[in-house]
Design a protein that fits this description.
By secondary structure, this protein is α/β, with parallel strands linked by helices. The protein has helices at residues 3-14, 69-81, 90-102, 115-130, 170-173, 184-194, 219-230, 249-254, 280-283, 302-315, 320-341, 368-372, 376-388, 409-427; strands spanning 36-40, 43-46, 51-54, 108-112, 134-138, 151-152, 162-163, 176-179, 198-203, 233-237, 260-263, 274-278, 347-351, 354-358, 391-392, 401-402. The mean pLDDT is 97. The protein binds 4'-deoxy-4'-aminopyridoxal-5'-phosphate (PMP). InterPro entries: 4pyrrol_synth_GluAld_NH2Trfase, Aminotrans_3, Aminotrans_3_PPA_site, PyrdxlP-dep_Trfase, PyrdxlP-dep_Trfase_major, PyrdxlP-dep_Trfase_small.
Length: 428
């Protein structure tokens, strides 16, 4: 029995499912999750001493690789001064200024502790600002686990939302309308019926929670236009895409100006940080300047800010995103070539530092329903073959993969050689 097996058994006694976030339990692929001992650069090391090339990067934050020396040094320096004060600090001001410098649509910014808090707060603000209750989200997009967002589409295209989880009152869910990602007609229909009641559209500009699905040309522009027409706010949830798709996130890559943006993951460099921000006239509605309540004991925590600010400063290095995109393209195209060589139909998507692969005969993946039609059994087998080869992919066919700047030739060559052997076994 491996140490991971032992720890998983032990963990399940005191932690539900043995994990503090469900996807870590390997429910999507079966088997025992690897318990991690430490990480460095592009590698994770488990408690049994096995090394893995990591394509999860702590689910996004590790854009510069694990254990980055400058970020580590900044954290240690901050820790030496104190862990938390519950009072304003200079570094929070510097952080807000840095976010605005990089993402100019975020004229004002509020720090929180997770992506969930960021989206929950942005939606409350949008509702408070517009005086409307309904929101529009998209099937297959994930925005954290606030009640209004754990909602699935009702039975008909235009019925009101239904809870996606026990514990979410139907009375809350009915305010959430669920449309089809990359289908502007579905959004127009929702607005024709409910337009004057809709506070906001919230969207992952590149969907990364249904594998990886970029927006089709015109989709994000269309959402912007519909919001403008009906006086609703456009919230780009850039928790995943922020500082990953490009320095200025998806809004920079696709040139879309949102009213509000939510951030998480990379902005904390691995520390628990989220943020939401946008137009000053909207942000002024947040307490204490405005009536919409939002707060946090540890928000803007000095140690977390030290990590995040150092990360953002490092990201300003010229050429960094060209390198990241080239690495991502090499991995995604390499997977496709290896699969094709062994007669395995595989579709790929990639943008900036995120990618997806789909076991399907279809070539152009733009819709959630296409993801649900993929060969999940093949994905599971491939996943475990790659894990045995020392490649750590997201343990679910509904998650995007992430590259880091620490993924060098050696790691990418190892990954593609492992993929070739794995596809050969799948084909055999
Ligand atoms: N929004 C998006 C787009 C996400 O991908 C996630 C998490 N994967 C969240 C929000 C929630 O963030 P957190 O897990 O930090 O609460």
């Amino acid at each position: 029995m491996s140490k991971s097996d032992q720890l998983f058994e032990q963990a399940r006694q005191t932690i539900p499912g043995g994990v503090n976030s469900p996807v870590r339990a390997f429910n999507g692929v079966g088997g025992t999750p690897r318990f991690i001992d430490h990480a460095d650069g592009a590698y994770l090391y488990d408690v049994d001493g096995q090394a893995y090339v990591d394509y999860i990067g702590s689910w996004g934050p590790m854009l510069l690789g694990h254990n980055h020396p400058a970020i580590k040094a900044a954290v240690i320096k901050a820790v030496e001064k104190g862990l938390s004060y519950g009072a304003p600090t200079e570094i929070e001001v510097l952080m807000a200024e840095k976010v605005r410098q990089i993402v100019p649509s975020m004229e004002q910014v509020r720090m929180v502790n997770s992506g969930t808090e960021a989206t929950m707060s942005a939606i409350r603000l949008a509702r408070g600002y517009t005086g409307r209750d309904k929101i529009v989200k998209f099937e297959g997009c994930y925005h954290g686990h606030a009640d209004s967002l754990l909602v699935k589409a009702g039975s008909g295209a235009l019925t009101l939302g239904q809870p996606n989880s026990p514990g979410v009152p139907a009375d809350f869910a009915k305010h959430t309308l669920t449309c089809v990602f990359n289908d502007l007609d579905s959004v127009r229909e929702a607005f024709i019926q409910y337009g004057n009641e809709i506070a906001c559209i919230i969207v992952e500009p590149v969907a990364g929670n249904m594998n990886c699905i970029p927006p089709v040309p015109g989709f994000l522009e269309g959402l912007r236009a519909i919001c403008d027409e009906f006086g609703s706010l456009l919230i780009l949830d850039e928790v995943m895409t922020g500082f990953r798709v490009s320095l200025r996130g998806a809004q920079g890559h696709y040139n879309i100006e949102p009213d509000l943006t939510t951030l998480g993951k990379i902005i904390g460099a691995g520390m628990p940080v989220g943020a939401f921000g946008g137009k000053k006239k909207v942000m002024q509605h947040i307490a204490p300047t405005g009536p919409v309540y939002q707060a946090g004991t540890l928000s803007g925590n000095p140690v977390a800010m030290a990590a995040g600010l150092t990360m953002l400063e490092l990201l300003l290095e010229p050429g960094l995103y060209e390198q990241l995109s080239a690495k991502t393209a090499r991995v995604a195209e390499g997977l496709k070539a290896a699969a094709t060589k062994h007669g395995i139909p595989l579709a790929i998507t990639y943008v900036g530092g995120m990618f997806g692969f789909f076991f399907t005969e279809e070539s152009d993946i733009t819709r959630y329903e296409q993801v649900t039609r993929c060969d999940m059994e093949r994905f599971k087998r491939f996943y475990h073959l790659m894990l045995e080869e020392g490649v750590y992919l997201a343990p679910s066919a509904y998650e995007a993969g992430f590259l880091s700047l620490a993924h060098g030739d050696k790691e990418i060559e190892h990954t593609l050689a492992a993929a070739e052997r794995s596809f050969a076994k799948l084909a055999g």
